[in-house]
Structure formats: structure tokens, C-alpha cells
Predict the structure.
Amino acid sequence: MEWFKDVVLGENGPTIAHTVFVLAAVIASGIALSRIKIKGISFGVTWILFTGIAAGHFGVSMDPHTLHFIKEFGLILFVFFIGLQVGPGFFSSLKSGGLKLIALAALIILLGVVTTYVIHLISGEPLPTMVGVMSGAVTNTPGLGAAQQAFSDANGGAVDDTISLGYAVAYPLGVIGIILSMIILRSMLRVDFKKEDEGLRAMSDETHLPHRYSVEFTNKMLEGKTIAHAHTLINRQFVISRLMHSDGEIVMADGNSTLTIGDRLRIICTEEDREAILAFFGEPIEMSADEWGATAMQSTPLVSRRILITREEINGKKFSDLRLRTRYGINITRVHRAGVDLIPYQGMELQVGDKVMVVGPEAAVAQAEKVLGNSLKKLDHPNLLPIFIGITLGVLLGSLPLMEIPQPVKLGLAGGPLIIAILLGRYGPHFKMVTYTTMSANLMLREIGLAMFLAAVGIEAGDGFVDAIADGGYKWVGYGVIITMLPLLIVGTIARLKFKVNYYTMMGLMSGAMTDPPALGFANTTSGNDMPAVGYATVYPVVMFLRVLSAQLLMLMAL
């Protein structure tokens, strides 16, 4: 049985087998417990942190250097694949429709930091401990990692266990506090779900998704002009996908199509631009999709098909480079990227993983499909080179001293890889880098990284957890509740009364500002629609970055 003692108990010192066994056992038991739900609410994979703390409390140990590597590498994997996922939609979320929500989310973060610092001044709790409590209260694991690394870098590799202990103590009521804040705001602001449902159309407009409209062309100034010429006269993004002539014939439209009085146009644009564009061309009319699908020319029926871009040669190329309209007589009406529908334009760079809506004669659409790829099997093959290049650059950026106040300020192993991943996700195709990973692969690697990080943090902190609670750590629970709920209640009230934010979107905003999936799950169940998810996705990329940065800056104030 000596082999069993070596592997399970590590009696003869830490070995690779013992390290892997402990790590896997902690993660497996945490994931098993994550399936426990209380009134539909679960702490998810955060149970891994608690099982790690329990293991550490009962004397389970690992080699400190190995434990540190597992923690840091897990954190890098977690934040990098978050950044890679949100990168394609990161900068588009900064445009006008999302700026209001992002500003409100930033205000929640600012109030949380101020509340943390004020509690530190009043209570006398060490600021590093309060940063850990804040990270748990706002359920933000990368912020915890950034805070721990900032402390370690400034203190020659030293570790303050109260940072992770504060996180573990504050986290459970952090999740509950977010949901409780939603319920309190609903009652306090007298939210009527029927009225909120009536506002869903207006809220969908804020996402700037493409809509389809029909117009009868009446602008005599454009009589005989081409669609390309019309584009130069109005500074709006739109696509005219089809033309119906006065004899009922429906044809594909491209830049060379000539406009004639009496033609009917199928226009795709955002709701925001609708009024200006429709007035520019003529009079809005009602035509169903079936009417546009019919054609007098049965020899060349029009079909529409979503085509997945899978050929690496297309990655980073612009629509103007491909000349799909002139070569094949087809029209691209929408581009679906990172969960968002975009209106195509000639200068748009395509990325592997994009889905484009192609309209045209069936034979022409088939030709375009061959050019673009549309092979799911190709997307299943992982593109490892950009991942490891990104991690390399992220570690370099995270280790770069940005300023001295008085210790070097660094983005750290959480901030550096996150920023590089966002930039790669957005601009990688510009440099012919295929950064696409399937959602399942991204989620798998992200969750493995998070599980490694939480297990290592828990084992590291478990030895002194009970003593810390007995010595006054129970107060951290109350501090965490204040840090969680006060900013949410203040900003939620402002969002509703000042900016008239729809309650469904506000729930998504609150969940996203706290980067908390369980709260988003509650919001989705309560609303019965996807508006909370839209609000969550709008603020999440910026919030993730600000959470990491604010935790580091607050930690540096303590040094």
C-alpha cells in the first residue's frame, strides 16, 4: 500500500502523481457540488474554491512552486480565452448604442472601489484584505488573480492569504446580493412587466441590428443613377439586396444597378438609420418576405443561404477584394460575427468563422460557397499558433512596467493576456492570423483554466481559513454585502429614473457589471427573453478589463 500513500497522501514528499491526484480530486469534487441548487441558484464552479479550502484545511498540500504555476497558468488560460471570445465584438460594443450601458457599468465599478476604500478607512481592515473581499463581493475571479499578483510582485513573491480568504468568504453572498438587488429594484421602482414587454422593440433598436424594409423609389434626383452613386450621397450604411421592376420582375441589386422611378427596393439597414434612408429613396411600403421571394423570372429564382467562411485565404480580406457581386451576381446582406449581425460594406474585413447571408441565383450562390468555404470540418481543427503567440505577447505586456507609483504598475498575468486576446480577436485577421476557435473549444479551455486557478487558490488559502473567520473574518461577509448591493442599487435607480433603461436590460447590465453568470441565469429566467443577455454581452468585455485594472490599482494604493 506504499504506492497508495505516496499518491493520495504524499507521505514521501510531493510527487507529480500526488500533485495531479490532489488537483483532479479537488476539481472533480467541486464540479460535483456545483450541481447543487438552492431555489434555482448555484455557485457554479466556485465550489472548486471551497473544496480546495477544505482540502487545505485538512492538511492536503502541494509543492509551493508547482501550486503557484498551476494558479498563474490557469488564470492566463481563463482570461485569454475570454478575451479571444469577446474580441470581435469588443469595439463595436463601444459605439453609441452600448456607451450608455458601459458608462453605467463603469459607474458601478467606481462606486464599488470607493465603497471598498471607505470601509477600509472606517474599519481599519488591511486594504489587501479588502481587495480580496471586493473581488468576492463582485464575483470577479480575474480581479482576484490580478490583485494577488500585484501584491506578490511588489513584495518579492510574498503571498497574503487574507486576499483569497476574503474572496472566498464574500463570494457566496455576492451572488445572492446581486439577485437580491434586482428584486429590490423591481419592487422599489414598481416595475410592470407588461410595460417592459412593450418596450422590447425600442430596446432591440439599441442593439443596432440590421432590419429589412421595402421602399417604392420616388426620388427624381436619383432617376437613372446607380446604387453605388447613391451610396456616395448619404453617409449611412445600408444594402439594397433586390429590385422589383414595374413589370413585377425581381432582380439582384449591386452597385451598378440603375434606379428607376416606380421600382421597389429591398433595403437592409439599422433601425437608427431607417428614417433617413427610407426618406432618401422614396415611400415605405409593406411587402412580405414571400412577396420578395417570388419572381417573374422562373429561370433564375433567387435563394438566400447562410455561408460559413472557413477558407484561410479569405481571412482578413475585404469585400472589395473579393468582388463577389460582380463576379458571381450575388449579394451579401448581413454578416454574423461573435453573436452580432452586422451590415456589410466594401471595406469590411472578413474573418474565419463569420457567417454571411448570401442572396442570388442558386448556381451563383453555390459558386460563392466554394470561394468562401462553408466547411464545418475545417473549423474543428484548432489554430494553436495564434493562441501561443497571443499568450507570449500577453505575458510580455503584463510584465511591462507602465509607471512607478512607487512600485511598478503592471497589467499582470491577468490584464496582459486579456488585452492581447481582445486585440487578436479583433485585428488578428488583419495580419492573416486565424484566431477563430469553436465555442465548445473556447469554453473547454476557459473552464479548465478557471478550475485550475480556483483549486490552487483554495488549497493555498485553506490552511488558515477557519482561524481567519474566528479572528474577525466574519465581518468580511457584511462588508462584502455592502460592496455588492450599494453600487447596484444606486446605479440601478439612476439607470431607471434618469436614462429610462428597460428593466430586462438593466438586469443584464447588473449581471454583466458583476461578471456573474448565475445572476444572468436568474435574469433570463425572470424575463423570459434575451434582453438581459444583450445587456450582459454589451458591457462584459469592458467590465472584465476594468475589474482587473481596478483591483490592481487599489492593491497598489496599499503598498
Summary: Confidence is low (pLDDT under 50) at residues 203-207, 295-299. Residues 2-199+384-557 form one domain.
